Amino acid sequence: MGITSAIVLFAVVWFMTFFIVLPLRLTTQGEDGSVVPGTHKSAPADAQIGRKARITTYWAVPIWAVLAVVILSGWISVRDIDWFDRMSTPQGAVSTS
Which of 2, 3, 20, 7 is nearest to 64 (CA)? Predict the structure, then answer.
């Protein structure tokens, strides 16, 4: 795994974790009783995006590290998830491994 792949993997893990953390402890404007004109009652009263971004980072780093170790160690490869056998060698081809 190259540096670009590692960065892309981290971004994917971070955003997936962020979308899980985002609705936690959400208080809507309707629940709070202070609906701002022009917004829905279901809009967040106090989103606390910075706090949720920190929580996301605290969870995303170890998840990313585990995934990176699994990928770099070779425990699971692309051939392991080739369920339709599309990566097999063509008939008559000599395998080098």
Answer: 7
